[in-house]
Amino acid sequence: MNADLREAAEPLMPPPDGSAASSRSRTVAVACESTACLPDDAVRRYGIAVVPIPFVFGQETFLDGVDITTQEFYARLARADSPPLTSPPAPGEYVRAWQQSLAAAGSEARALVMVTASSRLTTFQRSTQLAQELAGELLPGVAVVVLDSGSAAMGQGFVTLAAARSAARGQSIEEVLRAAEAVKRRVCMIVTLDTLEYLARASRIPQVAAFVGSVLAIKPIVLFADGDVRQLARVRTRRRSINQVIEQLRLRAPAGGRLHMVVHHTQAADEAELLRRRLATDFDCAELTTREFSPVMGGYCGPGLLGVAFYAEATGDDESG
Q: What is the mean pLDDT of residues 103-121?
């Protein structure tokens, strides 16, 4: 086994004093990939370890969210003849991140939940399986559970946060998994793309290529849910596409359920803020922020993406689900 897999990992920055994450000892640690697009403050507060996704741009290799800014990335993307190529993190990188998350959780942590991007959208799963095998030797006494989020971006991020918030309350591995699964069942992401060019070139999903056809000027509205991607509508103008995102959200938001939402964008900060304001007016929001896609996610969708990742809080009728 490689010696670098045995190196002690540097601990993550501890949660701020007085936060929910630091109020009690945790028995469960939580990790995810950089595709979750989690805000830095949430990562720090809950001690979440983030595994950066490597990608190759030309002759250079980068780590998502680590050594290239979004501005630098999109400047390169605009000049590139082909999109960047992503690859799964090495199994040892997963194990190293898990060591970090366990260190942040404290000495009582004996379990770890790894929330992955959807297995239907990525090829990371083989690496996580190999990492689980390595963990049997490198993390003795720690139960590692890999949970497929069925999504990506803050769809994956919300599932990760549900696990991390449960763990921060000192709950057991079973309770943490129940909390994450409950959000996984509800979370969706609805986006509009300014162009289908990037998704068509990079996607592993046959139906994405199928609806590209010869209508690259069309603005599609796309749903990410339950590990699947499908087109909901096509319009010809940006204004109508944004209105369609809101209308599709309205159709899927259950009556009486408060919404947790993140407005996602790629190089469209002003439009994202305008959309956030509309959503704040039109919906009952438990949380509502904006978040730009990470470079890896942006490489799949290209500049101009705008949309919403969301889930509704459980109501009395579906608490048991």
A: 93
- Res. 249 pLDDT band, cuts 50 70 90: very high
Distance CA 294, CA 65 (A): 6
Answer yes or no: are the C-beta atoms of 27 and 173 closer than 8 Å: yes
Region of 267 on the Ramachandran plot (φ > 0 left; ψ -120 to 50 alpha; else beta)? left
Checking if the pLDDT of 32 tops 90, the result is: yes
CA distance 63 to 203: 20
Task: Quote the CA–CA distance of 280 and 289 in Å, as a whole number.
Answer: 10
Please give the pLDDT value at position 212.
52
- Rounded Cα distance, 150 and 156, in Å: 7
- Residue 239 corresponds to which amino acid? R
Q: Which domains does the chain have, with CATH numbers?
A: 3-53+88-185 (3.40.50.10440), 187-312 (3.30.1180.10)
Structure tokens at 18: 């007085």
The pTM for the full model equals 0.87
